[in-house]
């Protein structure tokens, strides 16, 4: 399973990259705003900085909602760097744009996906990635992981190459469950990745090893 980090925070991105397990980055307008990155020029520069830090795919989201402008914006984003994947919302004009980008060889991430039907449409249009938001479904008492299972089944039935990118991942158990049910990618905060490191028996076991070494070696 690929690990993406879902943030525009450069320190967190560096930290995850340094761990050696990072396969990419996803961002969105809210995450950019959270880091105080405003104005199109600054946003563009920020994408470039992210591409300089990581070696994998970097999702850059369009803010247009009509076909013509999504195309214009997406083409400009794709030209920024070869690592850029154009993130397009799951709306009618978005699906049409994904088909256009797919035909042109521009990679896409279809975002704001909350149903298996939407994921089927994104795959039919040729999306590189589809992003079901599992945390936000959990927030409204709907099983987000169940959606990943449904999409996995549908994509496997027909051999769709669109990769399932579990988004809105909030914690390590989301990561583990996604791995068990065959999500191709997960994107979450740094804490969801670093949380996988933790086990109290590892900490106590290491403390004991070091203590015993000290006893014997001064
Ligand atoms: O990748 C989508 C993500 O940014 C949304 O996460 O935590 O705002 O639901 P969240």
Explain the overall architecture.
The chain contains eleven helices and eight strands. Helix 4 (67-80) packs across helix 5, helix 5 runs parallel beside helix 6 and helix 6 (116-125) runs parallel beside helix 8. An eight-stranded parallel β-barrel has the order 1-2-3-4-5-6-7-8, surrounded by seven helices. The chain is globular, with a radius of gyration of 19 Å. It has 218 residues and is α/β, with parallel strands linked by helices. Bound molecules: SN-glycerol-3-phosphate. SN-glycerol-3-phosphate binds at residues 6, 26, 28, 31, 131, 133, 135-136, 167-168, 170, 187.
Question: Short summary of the structure?
Answer:
The chain is of the alpha/beta class and 218 residues long. It has eleven helices and eight strands. It has an eight-stranded parallel beta barrel with strand order 1-2-3-4-5-6-7-8, surrounded by seven helices.
For this entry, give a set of tags.
binds SN-glycerol-3-phosphate, alpha/beta, 218 residues, 55% helix, 8 strands, eight-stranded parallel barrel, 11 helices
- Which ranges are low-confidence, i.e. pLDDT below 50, for 5 or more consecutive residues? none
Which radius of gyration do the C-alpha atoms yield? 19 Å
**Structural class by helix and strand composition:** alpha/beta
Largest sheet: 8 strands, parallel, barrel
Write the topology of this structure.
Blueprint: E1 2-6, H1 10-19, E2 24-26, H2 29-34, H3 40-53, E3 57-61, H4 67-80, E4 84-89, H5 92-104, E5 108-113, H6 116-125, E6 129-132, H7 134-139, H8 144-158, E7 163-166, H9 172-180, E8 185-188, H10 190-194, H11 200-217
Helix pairs in contact: 4-5, 5-6, 6-8
Bound molecules: SN-glycerol-3-phosphate.
């Amino acid at each position: 399973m690929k690990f993406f980090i879902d943030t525009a925070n450069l320190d967190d991105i560096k930290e995850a990259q340094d761990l050696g397990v990072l396969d990419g980055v996803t961002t969105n307008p809210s995450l950019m705003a959270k880091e105080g990155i405003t104005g199109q020029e600054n946003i563009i520069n920020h994408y470039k900085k992210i591409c300089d830090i990581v070696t994998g795919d970097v999702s850059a989201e369009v803010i247009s909602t009509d076909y013509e402008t999504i195309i214009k914006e997406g083409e400009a984003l794709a030209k920024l760097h070869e690592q850029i994947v154009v993130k397009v919302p799951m709306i009618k004009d978005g699906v049409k744009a994904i088909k256009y980008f797919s035909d042109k060889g521009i990679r896409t991430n279809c975002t704001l996906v909350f149903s298996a039907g939407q994921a089927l449409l994104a795959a039919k249009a040729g999306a590189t990635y589809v992003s079901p938001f599992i945390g936000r479904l959990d927030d409204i008492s709907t099983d987000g992981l169940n959606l990943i299972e449904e999409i996995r089944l549908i994509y496997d039935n027909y051999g769709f190459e669109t990769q399932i990118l579990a988004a809105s991942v909030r914690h390590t158990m989301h990561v583990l469950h996604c791995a068990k049910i065959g999500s191709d990618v997960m994107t979450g905060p740094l804490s969801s990745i670093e949380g996988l490191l933790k086990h109290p028996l590892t900490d106590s076991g290491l403390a004991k090893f070091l203590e015993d070494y000290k006893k014997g070696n001064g």
